[in-house]
Specification:
Length: 93
């Protein structure tokens, strides 16, 4: 298990991930930000959605027993969920 966590951290660094200790709420400052869902770094059962550019991201929650997957950008069953390092949204860089 430690190997998988170390591998995930290494992959995040290689992908240009900047660690983020905030809740991960994006600024929604561009139309491109509305094309996907964003991880809530403090609550794995929740995520952020930019519905329109230049408006605040709206909090959303996964259905019961669901966890938000950063890899698939969807809610998945909690048994299939694995922690991954948190990355700052592009709007916060």
């Amino acid at each position: 298990m430690k190997f998988l966590i170390a591998l995930a951290a290494l992959l995040a660094l290689a992908a240009g991930c900047i660690r983020d200790d905030s809740d991960g709420r994006p600024d929604c400052n561009a139309a491109e930000m509305t094309a996907r869902l964003w991880r809530n770094n403090w609550d794995p059962t929740a995520f952020w959605e930019c519905t329109t550019a230049n408006s605040p991201a709206e909090p959303r929650r996964c259905p019961t027993e669901g966890m938000f997957s950063e890899a698939t950008r969807t809610c998945i069953n909690w048994a299939d969920w694995a922690w991954t390092p948190t990355c700052r949204p592009p709007s916060k860089e």
